Amino acid sequence: MKNILKSIVALLLAGVARAVLHRYHPHIVMVTGSVGKTSTKDAVATVLAPRFFVRASEKSFNSEFGVPFTILGVQNPWRNPLAWFSLMKSSLALLILPNHYPNMLVLEVGADRPGDLARIARMATPDAVVVTRLPEIPVHVEAYASPDAVREEEFSPAYALAAAAPLIVPSDDLYALDMAMRTPAQVISYGSTDDSMVGISSADFYEIEGKVVGMRSKVAMGVEQGNLIVKGSVGTTQLLPIAAALAVARAFAIPLPEALQALENYEPPPGRGRLLRGKNDSIIIDDSYNASPVATEEALATLKAFPHAKRRIAVLGDMLELGRYSVLEHERIGKLAHESADMIVAVGIRSRAFGAAFGVAEVILFDNADAAALALPDRIHKGDVILVKGSQSIRTERIVEALLADPADVVRLVRQEKAWKKKV
Predict the structure, then answer these.
(1) Per-residue pLDDT for 357 more than 70?
(2) Long-range pairs for 7-16 at CB < 8 Å and ≥24 separation?
(3) Domain match, 317 and 280 both
(4) CA 412 – CA 23 distance, rounded (Å)
(5) Tens digit of pLDDT for each residue in 265-318?
(6) pTM value surpassing 0.90
(7) Rounded distance between C-alpha atoms, residue 177 and residue 174, angstroms
(8) Domain containing 94 — which CATH number?
(9) Domain interval for residue 139
(10) What 3-state DSSP class applies to 388?
């Protein structure tokens, strides 16, 4: 009964959202892919904001509910009847009364199960599509017949593009490039390869007075060149959303200097490699939003390369929804963790594979995030650099909260809404 009611509500929301789009005809940029969608969506919205009246998906609202919430410009009502009533009033007002509606929507779209993006496609048709990474073993693969099936669905919004419409794809991703060749779209590539239409190079940590405060790189867009700086987060993956946003700028004829100036206002979302002050003068790399094999691999590479660290600690939770690939991928990541960290803190049943005898790193095992949050603060030393990463359901943000030097920084973490914090 619950699923039937959910399906009915989703159909009603989709119908109203479709009607709103039909009335106002905004440009729609869709952001799809397996990793990095929210950061990319935020960067794209930032670069377009000076030229357009932009509305972008809040946080990671990318589902059959999240997308219409964005189109309608409403918050997630969760289970609040009054909030649902307010949503209905706002929706009717959009359809009946004159409104100053955005002329540009930046919609993040995601798939947990087969058919998710097909349902979103019936609601909204993109004018441009940005594709993020499509890795070898994508997240949510356990719900699909194969990794290829996941990648095909995540790429599917591109098939709805009109001929010569902009399709922005990562030049480092052979899957995305191969699928882009099947479309009549205008392909604009971004990344670190020499043939990228928007290319980044010389990526490195950005330091001020010997303290890491972000990432930096050079960027080239045609004959134009400039410098990228991302403050507050670390990892080369933090530069890719900026490169994707610059590719969108190119598609909309925004010059590189103007685009870079707009992107000075970009701030990576919570839980994506964010730098936070930890207890005992330590540094936290808060990557607690979610975890997939490719994202965890990249986070460990960042930890390994992080300068001035006296001790590197990897707090790693289970990577979920990997199905038959789970054991192999946890073992593979475990080997990388031993190569990257002095101490490994494994949180969850699956992550016990990280404690296998792959190396000489000290290993501590916890059943859940709450147990780790209680025990870890007393083990942190001055100069430690602590990576915290795990799948959403593991709730590793609770560990980050326990390690904060300033409890007030909790507002900078993921999943701080009352509805989320009530969940076990």
Answers:
(1) no
(2) 9/65, 10/64, 10/65, 10/119, 13/64, 13/65, 13/68, 13/69, 13/72, 14/64, 14/68, 14/119, 14/122, 14/123, 16/68, 16/72, 16/91, 16/95
(3) yes
(4) 37
(5) 999 999 999 999 999 999 999 999 999 999 999 999 999 999 999 999 999 999
(6) yes
(7) 5
(8) 3.40.1190.10
(9) 2-263
(10) strand
